[in-house]
TrEMBL record:
Transmembrane segments: none annotated. Residues 24-73 are annotated as: Disordered. Residues 76-182 form the Lreu-0056-like domain. The lineage of its organism: Bacteria, Bacillati, Bacillota, Bacilli, Lactobacillales. Residues 1-20 form the signal peptide. This is Lreu-0056-like domain-containing protein. The keyword Signal applies. Keywords: Signal.
Length: 188
């Protein structure tokens, strides 16, 4: 009987510790501030785990797509960059069509498509066999551009080609975007 009381007491201590950790801090002058911080913290945690799952499934899909098809080695780095930009940063594609996008060497062997602005519209990419590795700022995760983390993802070149470079209309669009890229190594 004493053993059961010990377990019940231990369970109560653990449960109260968990409940205390889940509460909000009401000692600040503005109770809403604490609730917002807890809410933002849980949103970030949820967002991070969703992104990790999305990245894993995206990488799994990329791997299976790349293993079953051959790669068109005739696409240029600029075409690969534009397709990757269309895939990972569709909200900023207008910068390419407006002629405000630069193509230049990035870091660590990567090439970059950039507006030469604050970095939020910059995509670095590198082809590695049948895979394309990309790096960009995840502006949805930071409260400001400066707080935004840089994420690295991988996608198969075949998946990019299937989604953005398979029909003549798609090829024309990609090639039109490529023709509007400015040389980022030159003073324009």
């Amino acid at each position: 009987m004493k053993v059961n009381k010990v377990y019940v007491g231990l369970a109560c201590l653990v449960a109260s510790g968990l409940l205390a950790g889940c509460g909000t801090n009401h000692s600040s002058s503005n109770g809403n501030s604490s609730k917002q911080e807890v809410s933002q913290s849980s949103k970030k945690s949820s967002s991070t785990s969703k992104k990790a799952n999305t990245s894993k499934s995206s990488n799994d899909e990329s791997h299976s797509a790349s293993s079953s098809s051959s790669i068109d080695t005739n696409v240029t780095d600029q075409q690969i960059g534009v397709m990757a930009y269309m895939h990972f940063m569709p909200q900023s594609v207008s910068a390419i069509s407006d002629g405000d996008m630069f193509y230049n060497p990035g870091d660590d062997g990567y090439m970059a498509l950039s507006t030469h602005g604050d970095g939020s519209a910059t995509l670095q990419f590198k082809r590695d066999g049948d895979q394309v590795s990309v790096k960009y700022m995840d502006t949805n995760s930071g409260t400001t551009v400066a707080d935004s983390p840089t994420v690295t993802k991988s996608i198969s070149l075949k998946e990019l080609e299937n989604n953005y470079y398979s029909s003549s209309t798609q090829k024309d669009q990609v090639n039109q975007y490529v023709s509007k890229l400015k040389d980022g190594t030159q003073d324009n």
